């Protein structure tokens, strides 16, 4: 997989929602590439139980208080049929976060990561850009191949194989992001009491 990743640019993703984070001055404690070795259990949790993991990550990112929860934390205003903040989040935030995690997994993962990047002024890692581009390219290729397979019967078996590869890569990417986010939250939450002690 590393050989494939080298083919993808590590440049900042211009014209995307990530562009706003390139002015940040802090780095994640670990990159997505390091997450499987340095946050193994969280990566497995993120890959194998993705929806539950995203619920956990967002709740932790919000310091355990869902009062500040809105759909996708407002980063994807067009993904809901209603405006984020007006989808019933105030009356039942836990239920809404659960629905977001199970029905819009990719948006849930991305918005949790963006929220953490905003909160701690974190800059995306160049290898993270490569992994995300590789995943997105495979999803797009799989979609194109499935559309072509409707008309070209010979492509149907290849489309099924590509679907499986794209799905494995997607859940691996989600696992790496989850591991990276959980590791960062652990680090930031351990640093907070030390910072308070220094202030005193």
Structural summary, described in words:
- This is PLAC8 family protein.
- It comes from Tribonema minus.
- The model has no long low-confidence stretch (mean pLDDT 84).
- The chain has 200 residues and is mainly α.
- The longest helix is centred in the last third of the chain and has 44 residues, at 156-199.
- Helix 3 crosses helix 8, helix 4 (50-61) packs parallel to helix 8 (156-199) and helix 6 runs parallel beside helix 8 (156-199).
- It has helices at 2-6, 35-38, 40-48, 50-61, 93-103, 105-120, 126-151, 156-199; strands spanning 26-27, 122-123.
- A two-stranded parallel ribbon has the order 1-2.
Per DSSP, the total helix count is 8
Helix/strand order = HEHHHHHEHH
Fraction of residues in H or I helices: 55-70%
- Any idea how many domains? 1
Protein name: PLAC8 family protein
Organism: Tribonema minus
Brief digest:
With 200 residues, the chain is an all-alpha fold. 64% of the residues lie in helices and 2% in strands.
Would you spell out the secondary-structure blueprint of this structure?
Layout (H helix, E strand, L loop, with lengths): L1 H5 L19 E2 L7 H4 L1 H9 L1 H12 L31 H11 L1 H16 L1 E2 L2 H26 L4 H44 L1
Parallel strand pairs: 1-2
Helix pairs in contact: 3-4, 3-8, 4-5, 4-6, 4-8, 5-6, 6-8, 7-8
Any key phrases for this structure?
200 residues; mainly alpha; two-stranded parallel ribbon; 8 helices; 2 strands; 2% strand
């Amino acid at each position: 997989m590393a050989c494939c990743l080298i083919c993808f640019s590590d440049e900042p993703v211009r014209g995307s929602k990530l562009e706003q984070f390139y002015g940040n001055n802090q780095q994640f404690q670990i990159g997505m590439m390091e997450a499987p070795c340095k946050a193994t259990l969280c990566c497995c949790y993120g890959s194998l139980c993705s929806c539950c993991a995203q619920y956990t990550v967002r709740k932790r990112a919000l310091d355990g208080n869902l009062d500040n929860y809105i759909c996708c934390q407002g980063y994807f205003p067009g993904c809901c049929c209603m405006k984020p903040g007006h989808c019933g989040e105030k009356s039942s935030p836990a239920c809404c976060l659960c629905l977001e995690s199970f029905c819009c997994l990719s948006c849930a993962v991305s918005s949790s990561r963006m929220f953490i990047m905003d909160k701690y002024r974190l800059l995306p890692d160049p290898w993270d850009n490569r992994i995300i581009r590789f995943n997105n390219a495979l999803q797009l290729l799989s979609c194109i191949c499935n559309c072509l397979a409707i008309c070209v019967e010979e492509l149907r078996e290849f489309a099924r194989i590509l679907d499986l590869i794209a799905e494995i890569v997607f859940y691996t990417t989600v696992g790496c992001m989850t591991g990276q986010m959980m590791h960062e939250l652990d680090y930031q939450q351990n640093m907070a009491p030390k910072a308070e002690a220094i202030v005193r």
